[in-house]
Amino acid sequence: xxxxxxxxxxxxxxxxxxxxxxxxxxxxxxxxxxxxxxxxxxxxxxxxxxxxxxxxxxxxxxxxxxxxxxxxxxxxxxxxxxxxxxxxxxxxxxxxxxxxxxxxxxxxxxxxxxxxxxxxxxxxxxxxxxxxxxxxxxxxxxxxxxxxxxxxxxxxxxxxxxxxxxxxxxxxxxxxxxxxxxxxxxxxxxxxxxxxxxxxxxxxxxxx
Length: 208
Ligand SMILES: [Zn+2]
Hints:
CATH class of the largest domain: Alpha Beta
CATH topology of the largest domain: GMP Synthetase, Chain A, domain 3
Bound molecules: zinc ion
Largest sheet: 4 strands, antiparallel
Distance between the termini: 54 Å
Strand content: 35-45%
Strand order of the largest sheet: 1-2-3-7
Structural class: mainly beta
């Protein structure tokens, strides 16, 4: 609308704020300043490095910082290094868009799931609003997941339509996370609101 081109940027307050990595005019990944950071992508469980192209946790070491150097700082941000050279000619590594946070990872029935995977699916449905809640429970000694999601302004009265929509959301979620969640569509403004960062996951599972 404004006739401007937007560029993606990555940063965090522990490093130097925005601009730790930035897109070039190719807009195919964000170049990270390797003259300032040592960049590593590791498996968040084993802490072993992963090959280029594979998603893992971004770990950074500052090279020039004096007052607060950070050595192998675990950012908890999940991304991958885009393999190959950038057509722009810069040689600094390119990071892909952030895929989520390693501390958000849910392990359900032995499968690693990130809330962002669920959010991405939900966002594709016009009928849904932006608030959702993932509840993890123990049912008959098994892990179970319920996804409550708010509908937009008008709650559909048509029960058959609502059921069809619920089925379609469930199917798409299963295809993405490989587990069948229970999906409940709820009227707008019925999910609990939290101050600050939204609480998206409630885990009430029995700990063994
Ligand atoms: Zn480039």
